[in-house]
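Subject: for your reference before the review

Hello V.,

The reviewers asked for a structural picture of the protein, and I figured it would be easier to keep everything in one thread rather than splitting it across files. Below is the amino acid sequence we used in the manuscript, unchanged from the supplementary table.
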Amino acid sequence: MVAVKRRSWTKNVAVSLLVFGFSILASGSANGDSSESEKTKIFGKKNTIRISIGTQDQVINTAVGGATVREMDLLKKYLPTTGKYEGVNYDIQWSSYTSGPPITNKMIANQIDIGLMGDFPAAINLIKFREEGGDVESTFIGTLAYSPTGAGNAVVVPKDSDVTSLSELAGKSVSVPFGSAAHGMLLKALSDNGVNPETDVELISQAPEVGGTSLRTGQIDAHADFVPFGELFPFRGFAKKIFDGAQTGVPTLHGIVVRSDFAQEHPEIVTAYMKAMLEANQIFRANPEATSAKIEEWSGIEKEVVYMFLGPSGLQPLDPTVRQVHVDALKNSITTLDELGKIESEVNPEEVSEWIDESYLRTAMTEQGLDYDQVIAEAESYVITGQDALTGEEITEPKMAGQLWIQGEETVTNFASVGNMMQMLPKLKTEGQAADVMFVHDRNNGWKLFAENSYYVNNGDGVSAFLLKEDANQYAASSGGQVTAFKELQATYAQQTEPTPVGAAE
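And here is what came back from the structure prediction:
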């Protein structure tokens, strides 16, 4: 399957950090780990089956397969209790990590059965098992959330930094969780922007919470990370984004891998887990605001940021299937890692298709009465709909919509246009209300954006939002509009809605 061609150890010192994910990331576990003696004790019990799941609570893309399943006890609901499972005691063990590599380490050590991780760590997981797993391999069995363009990964700098582009990071310090999806994105993005990641920058391995602290205290010049930190840190007010993974146009995902021995011995349990994940998807989609608030309780990630990624027209659609776009994400991960010399084996990216098995997902869908194509359609059509809160008009173009999450409100308020949303802001102010967050969407691509961090073009016919200033400039030139910042746009609409002084029209 995988032809192995070893490179010298001295040439690949950095490789071991990336592939094995040792060092600081290994300390990221939570909820405790089973010691060898405890594991032996568990398996010494005739009727006890351990189900050990490694997740990443703060990585919002894993929420529907991790925290939601765990906190709502959804797995227990579907575990088999008849036949060979009659009278079985299930020992369900959950552990949470700051990134994917520690999960891979523990899966190889047979301490975790099912792991949730991003595309680059998943690619490494699949490869490492085939190098070191002996008779055991790992299998990719389903997607949690994804972006066809790479939205979610990002590079941020301190809010008051003068750095505005990746090319300006030459000679500076950049931290990133080594072995993560963001690490792979950063290496490629720097190279594409003329910065040699080996010689032109000081790369430091830092978990997300450490990177955030380093940004706040000025210990690093930039931090690259995965979902949701590229949006979370700006939302918390101490960072600004200078590069979005969406600029690469390369798909990214978080998904599910399982040890082959566990899946072969207990396929019914793996199917049960997939059923639990499918129900978690349905729960979120049915009530995104309330579920986002729950995920905030479980993860510490603000509900507004959770909603930004997983809600309607969100950055990361919930799609459990493994289609070509998802296969491409894994293939690209292998290609990029190989090109950058970050994997020790010579691997044909095309082989990744042989390491994917959707049978557990499809069985779960069949047994739950779900149609495969319909599940895909629901994921792709999960966009903003309904009526404009200001005018009552139907929302027909989600990419042009605006949204407010008003303080104290349980649901998000939707508008058919950015202009209508802007008209509502002064009205809220006069009523003593304010919005915790304002969302707009990139005119070209539909990406959900924080309104305050976006660029706008007002061409008289309406207002369009953009992630990138260069896109805004191009649209302004072609439409006869003018590029403006959020505060200027807000001031314009505030003046338009100011009450006319008494006697002014006389």
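For the response letter, the relevant points are probably these. The longest strand covers residues 138-147. The CA atoms of residues 374 and 380 lie 10 Å apart.

Happy to draft the paragraph if you're swamped.

O.
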